[in-house]
Each structure stands twice: as structure tokens, then as C-alpha cells.
Design a protein that fits this description.
Helices cover about 60% and strands about 10% of the residues. The chain is of the alpha+beta class. It has 4 domains: about 180 residues, no CATH class; about 55 residues; about 170 residues; about 150 residues, no CATH class. The strands form 3 sheets. A 5-stranded antiparallel β-sheet has the order 3-6-5-12-4. Strand 10 and strand 11 form a beta hairpin. The longest helix is centred in the last third of the chain and has 62 residues. The two termini are about 50 Å apart. It comes from Paramecium pentaurelia.
Length: about 575
């Protein structure tokens, strides 16, 4: 124990380093620390010159040694619990995000509740750690807490914390189950409700109330409405089809439309035009495929699958139209033969003077009807041709969107391999040209939880963020840069000598409230005003966190940057 906390007795001039651990004495409000002579005298005066519970006199230094040991054990245990809670939160986030049949806003609401509940318990555990860190030396105002820590066993303390963690996990699991995120469970419940309603309706039909027939009829109508609406509700749960399935459905609709339409005299010309358009689509798809990477990635598997499906539908479409054209050719030939036969019949009618004029009029009406049918078929063919052109344009636009999206994905994958989970020294800012600056402040500005919450609100968990330090007069070079996912960077840590290793690479992050925020190439740090470990190491960045503006700042091997206006911290996001 540090001697500056041990006072000297004004009577005996000896150190006041003894305390009585008897329960009656510990619970009193009087002064606790005395020199050995004074504490003996107090107990003798109160007990007729007989020193009571003499064996309970203990040196405060021995007590504080035991308290320090228990404190370290508890802090280590609490850090493990916090890590388990963070892992539990990530696991639940992955489960929630897997239920894609629900709206994004609803999933975010569920995730927000889970995060809030877990963060509340983590904050309470962190407050316990901060409270125990105050017990470095004995002080009268902490007397009750120190003795409680000294007397309570570690097993009892661990059981209490584990019980709280288990209760929280059960609460969150029940909440997620209550939200009905699983589509199969929703459908099962809908079907179960429908079955119950049908049973109730059958019972009402078998035993209707004679005295209240209006109520019976109203109830039956209401049940029928609910049963009718139930499939609509189930249908809404299936409205999250992918873009590929939608395009396939559009092809099927196009085929069905073409199957029911008529042909005209330009059947052969339409057949050639459709074949040319299909060949153009095939050629354009082949050109796009040649430009894209042919490696066996999940996207290329999807691309090949989509291309094969597209070819199959093109072939099906072409074969269907060809069959329809052939059938219409035969129909047209029949119409033509009928027309020739009709002309022959007309000639015969004209030559037959015994025919009445009414028969001639009837034949002329039939000829006009045939001509109108041919005009109608011609209009339908023209409309079908325009429809095919429109679908072709839509297909090409969608393919280009998919191609551009893949380019962005490939760029992000390249950035991930090059930057994420790593520390870079003297990095040219051009390497981050597609990133967006989300934080840019001089080192004289304070960095706190409010700033962190703002950054989290404008980014996602998987957003790539690069935390960099630069010199104001040389903005082209980033002196030291640490890149990682947002959810890896902004996690609270609870130790001033150990940072947390990222799951993305060999970078260690810390956000020790209320001490410092930053990154390190190793687990070892030393947080005083900021990270002072290894002053020559250029791969460290540390920033005084939350507790005012007068703490330390460090960029690389520049460790004395308190309130500097020559340097600043910048954060880039992708």
C-alpha cells in the first residue's frame, strides 16, 4: 500500500494501519483506521479493560492485497462476460438478418431492441469495473464497498452475473420468437388460425342460435371474411421475390401473351425479325460475358445460371412463336383457299341469273368480314413486335445494372483484401479515392460517445471505415491508417493495458471509456492520457476519449499532440 494514504497517529506518532474486522465494529460509523495502540485502547475502554475480539485486528495493507486480487479476478471475469454478450449480439443479428421475408425497417426495429437490452447489461458491468478500479487504496468513503468486496466470495459473485446474463438471453430469445420472424412459423400459425375458424364456423352452422339468428349470421360472415383474407396475408409474406425470378415471370407472361394472338400475311417476315432480335440479344449477352471475370465466384455461378435460363427461355420463346407461325400459316392458307373458293362461287353466282340478290349480298358481307380479320391480325402482330422490342430493352438495362453492381462488389472485395484488418503507414490518400469522408477534425476537438453514435447512425455494421491521422500541411499522405468494419472498430473495451484483436485481421482496437480510443499492431497498450507504449512505433493511433479536451493524442511516433492544430484525425467510409 502506498504510504501517502497511511496517516500518522497524532497521539502515538505511529502509522494508522490497523482495522477491526469484527462485524459490530465494521458496521459502525466511526473512524476505522487506527494505530495498534489506539485501536487496542478503544476496545479496552469499551469492555472494562478487557480487549475484545483481538484476533479481528488486521493490517489494512493485507486486506487491500486480498481486495486487489479479488478485483483483478472479477474484472477478468467481467471482460469475459462482455465478450460473450457481444458474440451473442452478433449471433442474434445474423439470425435476424436471415429472415429476408420481413421488411428492412421491421428487422432494424428488432435489432435495435436486442442491441439496447444487451448494451444496458454491458454498461452495468462496465460501471462495476469502473467502481472497482477506484479501490486502489483504502479510503473512508469506500469503506463499505471495500469490505463487501473483501468478504464476498468470487463464486457467489460469478453466479449472480451468470444468472443475469442467462435471464437476458432468455428474454431476447423469447422476444425474437414473439416477433414471428420465421416465415414458416407465420404460415403455420395462419393455417392453424384458419383451421380453428373453420371448425368454429362448422359448429355454428350445425347448432345455430334460434333466438339470435342475426348474431349467428353476422358471426358466420365475419369468419368467412377472415378466412378469405388469411390467404391474402400469407401472400403478402411471399412478396419478397428476387429480381431474377421476376424477370423469368415476365418471360412466361410474354410467352402466354404470344400464344393467344393471331397472325397475318407477313408471317414469314415476322419470323425472321424475331429470330434476328433473339440473335442480337444472345450476341449482346455473350459480349457482356466476355468482359466479366470467368473465375468460379458466387456471382459468376449466378451469372451462368441466369444466362442458361435466359437461353432456355429464348429457345422456348422462339420455338413457341415458330409453332404459332406455322399454325397461322396453315390457317392463312385455308383462308386463302376459302377466298379463292369464294371468288369461284361468286363467279358462279354472277353467271347464275336465277340466284337472288340477297345471296350475293351475303357473300359480300363474308368477304368484308375476312378482310377485317386480316387487318386485326396485322395490328396484333405489329403490337407484338413492339412488345418484344420493349422487353429486349428492359433485359439489357437489367443486365447492365447487374454488371455495374458486380463491378462495385469486385472493387469492395479488392479493398477488403488490401486494407481491411490492417495498419498502413504513409498511405497515399489516392488509395481511398472512392471512400467518403465522414469525420475530419483537428486534434483540438474532443472525441466522445456522441460522435461515435453519429458515425454508427450514418453507416452499417459491414461498412469499411479507415481511421487515419494526417498532418494539416501535407493532406496527400496519411501518416498512419487503420481499416476495419464499423462493428469491429466501435466496441467498448475495459482494460487500460490490453486491446481487442479484430476478427478481420492483425489489428487491435480499443475504446476504453472514459480513457482513450485507437488502434495498435499488438494487444499490449498503456493508456495514461493516451497510448504511451513504445513511443517509436509508427503504427499506433490514440485519441483521448470522452473525458474532456485536455487528454492525450498520438499519431504514429508523435506522442505529444495534446490540442494540436497541426494534425487531425480523419475517417473514411466505403
Amino acid at each position: 500500500m502506498n504510504n501517502e494514504f497511511v496517516k500518522t497517529c497524532s497521539i502515538t506518532q505511529n502509522k494508522e494501519e490497523f482495522i477491526c474486522m469484527n462485524e459490530q465494529c465494521c458496521n459502525s460509523n466511526r473512524k476505522q483506521l487506527h494505530c495498534y495502540e489506539c485501536i487496542t485502547k478503544i476496545h479496552r475502554q469499551n469492555n472494562n479493560n478487557f480487549v475484545n475480539h483481538l484476533d479481528d485486528f488486521k493490517k489494512i495493507s493485507l486486506i487491500m492485497q486480498e481486495v486487489d486480487k479479488k478485483k483483478k479476478d472479477r474484472i477478468t471475469f467481467l471482460n469475459q462476460i462482455v465478450t460473450q454478450l457481444n458474440d451473442f449480439k452478433k449471433e442474434k443479428f445474423q439470425i435476424i438478418e436471415g429472415y429476408q421475408n420481413n421488411s428492412k425497417e421491421f428487422l432494424e426495429q428488432v435489432k435495435s431492441y436486442v442491441e439496447k437490452e444487451i448494451d444496458q447489461l454491458v454498461q452495468k458491468l462496465y460501471e462495476q469495473i469502473m467502481e472497482m478500479n477506484k479501490f486502489t487504496e483504502y479510503q473512508q468513503q469506500h469503506h463499505v464497498q471495500i469490505l463487501k468486496l473483501y468478504q464476498q466470495t468470487i463464486n457467489q459473485y460469478m453466479e449472480d452475473i451468470i444468472q443475469k446474463k442467462s435471464q437476458l438471453q432468455v428474454k431476447i430469445n423469447n422476444y425474437i420468437k414473439k416477433m414471428d420472424l420465421d416465415l414458416h412459423q407465420q404460415i403455420a400459425k395462419y393455417l392453424q388460425k384458419q383451421q380453428i375458424l373453420e371448425q368454429q364456423m362448422q359448429q355454428l352452422i350445425k347448432q345455430p342460435s334460434i333466438t339470435n339468428s342475426f348474431l349467428f349470421k353476422s358471426t358466420v360472415v365475419l369468419i368467412l371474411l377472415i378466412i378469405g383474407l388469411n390467404p391474402i396475408i400469407m401472400f403478402q409474406d411471399f412478396n419478397g421475390r428476387s429480381e431474377l425470378h421476376q424477370k423469368m415471370d415476365e418471360f412466361q407472361i410474354l410467352i402466354k401473351e404470344l400464344q393467344g394472338q393471331k397472325e397475318d400475311t407477313i408471317c414469314q417476315e415476322l419470323n425472321q425479325n424475331i429470330q434476328q432480335q433473339m440473335n442480337k440479344i444472345k450476341d449482346q449477352i455473350d459480349v457482356i460475358n466476355q468482359k466479366m471475370n470467368n473465375t468460379e465466384t458466387p456471382y459468376n455461378q449466378f451469372k451462368n445460371y441466369f444466362s442458361n435460363k435466359l437461353k432456355q427461355y429464348n429457345e422456348t420463346l422462339y420455338n413457341t412463336i415458330s409453332d404459332r407461325l406455322n399454325n397461322q400459316k396453315e390457317n392463312f392458307q385455308q383462308i386463302k383457299q376459302q377466298f379463292i373458293a369464294q371468288n369461284q362461287l361468286n363467279d358462279k353466282i354472277l353467271s347464275d341469273t336465277n340466284r337472288t340478290s340477297s345471296v350475293l349480298y351475303y357473300q359480300q358481307v363474308r368477304i368484308m368480314k375476312i378482310e377485317e380479320d386480316l387487318i386485326h391480325v396485322n395490328k396484333n402482330i405489329t403490337s407484338n413486335y413492339d412488345t418484344i422490342q420493349w422487353y429486349k430493352t428492359q433485359i439489357m438495362n437489367n443486365l447492365m445494372k447487374i454488371y455495374n453492381r458486380q463491378i462495385q462488389i469486385e472493387y469492395k472485395e479488392e479493398i477488403k483484401k488490401k486494407l481491411v484488418g490492417k495498419i498502413h503507414v504513409d498511405l497515399n490518400v489516392k488509395e481511398l479515392e472512392n471512400f467518403v469522408i465522414i469525420y475530419d477534425e483537428l486534434l483540438s476537438k474532443k472525441f466522445n460517445r456522441k460522435v461515435v453514435r453519429y458515425i454508427q447512425s450514418i453507416t452499417q455494421n459491414d461498412t469499411i471505415i479507415c481511421v487515419a491521422g494526417m498532418k494539416v500541411d501535407n493532406p496527400e499522405i496519411l501518416l498512419v491508417v487503420g481499416c476495419d468494419y464499423q462493428q469491429e472498430i466501435f466496441q467498448f473495451t475495459y482494460h487500460w493495458q490490453h486491446a481487442r484483436k479484430s476478427s478481420s485481421g492483425d489489428i487491435y482496437w480499443y475504446m476504453a471509456f472514459p480513457v482513450a480510443f485507437g488502434f495498435s499492431p499488438t494487444e499490449d497498450i498503456f493508456l495514461t492520457l493516451c497510448d504511451d507504449l513504445d513511443p517509436n512505433d509508427q503504427r499506433r493511433l490514440s485519441y483521448w476519449f470522452e473525458n474532456g479536451e485536455d487528454g492525450g493524442r498520438r499519431i504514429g511516433n508523435q506522442t505529444q499532440l495534446i490540442n494540436s492544430i497541426e494534425y487531425k484525425m480523419v475517417m473514411y467510409a466505403l
